[in-house]
Write a structure and sequence with these properties.
Blueprint: E1 2-5, E2 11-16, H1 24-34, E3 40-43, H2 60-70, E4 79-80, H3 85-94, E5 100-101, E6 109-115, H4 118-135, E7 150-154, H5 161-169, E8 174-177, H6 188-201, H7 206-216, H8 229-237, H9 245-256, H10 265-280, H11 290-310, H12 317-325, E9 338-342, H13 343-346, E10 351-356, H14 372-386, E11 389-398
Parallel strand pairs: 2-3, 4-5, 6-11, 7-9, 7-10, 8-9, 10-11
Antiparallel strand pairs: 1-2
Helix pairs in contact: 3-14, 4-5, 6-7, 6-9, 8-9, 9-10, 10-11
């Protein structure tokens, strides 16, 4: 959000970008800032790109509440000056009539590729990348074709596992792009890990405490506080109707027992990697990829701790959590190599060549999307992913996918 200030630091106009992602707190702040004196308010946003519902975002604040409170003039800008005609064609398949081709738009390329499994899919992407690099140039791509003007986009981080293996085998330089804006963990284990640490640092944090109770499907306590709060939650969670309740309860207990000043995060990660890995060896126990997501998010958490220690940002659990919240542990990003990015971290950015992988049932759209509203947001995610492409787009999916 940006404000245009005049002399004496008095705000006369308020300009809000990415307004489709406003949540209630942000919208109420804008109203309070404007009060009765500021009537010049401009909001810019695209309802088709609202993908932060898990943070309370809703395009209703832009499309309905703003209209009701400020009675603004409305202007629709549909002409796409970023993407080629091939990309716009796919975007309009997802969101009919949302894009208008610019008369200057290039023809572009689009291809939808089916592969037998995720191994074949990853290998196809690697071979396609190498073929492009050997071509070196094309009239539709400005400058030389290189890894720096390519990106591979997936719905979730775990989709890249097989691709990363082949990229390393073929010695293709790559980096995983992580955004400063934290994205909600996708597994129950990841959510418990995140929220329990918040509550361990502040047992009176009833906001995150209520979220944790909702994840665990347990009753909200009458009062907040106390050093044994997570242990109480663990006792109840063991009998809860959630995936792998014993693991979630053990995680709560482990976080409760962490030394706040010098937490042994590596030991915690090692213990649960072994536990989850043992369960993952039995396919009958897997439920909608929960164990796979749990392991991936645990590995990411461990990587954050290693980065935290390497950068010398502190010792305590509080310092670690603050560094995560400030985006200081996002890892090394090499813009000269191939970019791997989730949809959320690629939002607002663009590349000449986009590979959109893992477009299969249960992955994209995400298996948790079951309501009409959730499916609509998955459609928004796909729209955002496709429109990151300026020239060429390749969409791939496996006919079958192995689970742990």
């Amino acid at each position: 959000m940006a404000g245009n200030c005049v002399r004496n630091s008095v705000v006369s106009e308020v300009l809000v970008d990415e307004a489709q992602d406003l949540n209630k707190a942000q919208y109420e702040f804008i109203k309070a800032l404007c009060g009765d004196k500021i009537e010049s308010v401009m909001m810019v946003g695209d309802p088709n790109q609202m993908i932060y519902r898990f943070n309370g975002s809703s395009y209703d604040y832009l499309c309905q509440q703003f209209v009701k409170d400020f009675n603004p003039s409305k202007f629709e800008l549909k002409e796409n000056y970023r993407s080629s005609k091939a990309v716009i064609h796919i975007a309009n398949k997802l969101k009919p009539d949302s894009q208008v081709e610019s008369e200057f738009a290039r023809k572009g390329k689009s291809q939808i590729e089916e592969q037998q499994d995720e191994e074949s899919e990853a290998l196809w992407i690697c071979n396609k990348i190498n073929a492009m690099l050997q071509t070196k140039s094309d009239s539709e791509i400005e400058g030389e074709i290189s890894l720096s003007n390519m990106v591979v986009i997936a719905r979730n981080r775990f989709v890249f596992q097989t691709l990363e293996k082949y990229l390393e085998e073929k010695q293709i330089s790559y980096s995983l792009k992580k955004g400063e804006r934290q994205v909600e963990p996708s597994s129950i284990f990841g959510k418990v890990l995140d929220l329990a640490i918040r509550l361990r640092l502040n047992p009176k944090d009833w906001v995150d405490g209520k979220k944790l109770c909702a994840v665990l499907k347990i009753n909200i306590p009458d009062a907040w506080g106390g050093e044994d709060l997570l242990q109480k939650f663990a006792n109840v969670a063991r009998n809860s109707d959630i995936p792998f309740p014993e693991i979630q309860a053990d995680l709560l207990r482990a976080i409760q027992e962490l030394d706040l000043e010098q937490p042994n995060i590596l030991k915690l990660c090692g213990n649960f990697t072994t536990t989850i890995g043992a369960l993952g060896s039995n396919p009958s126990l897997e439920a909608d990829g929960e164990l796979e997501r749990s392991l991936q998010e645990l590995q990411d958490f461990r990587g954050c701790w290693i980065t935290f220690k390497r950068k010398g940002l502190g010792e305590s659990l509080s310092s670690f959590h603050n560094a995560m919240a400030l985006g200081q542990l996002t890892g090394d990003y090499n813009p000269s190599g191939l970019t791997l990015s989730t949809v959320h971290t690629m939002k607002g950015l663009e590349k000449d060549i986009v590979f959109l992988m893992g477009m299969c049932e249960g992955v994209f759209p995400d298996y948790r999307a079951r309501t009409k509203q959730e499916i609509k947001e998955e459609l928004n995610n796909a729209f955002v992913a496709v429109t990151r492409s300026k020239r060429w787009i390749y969409i791939t999916y496996p006919r079958q996918r192995k689970m742990p």
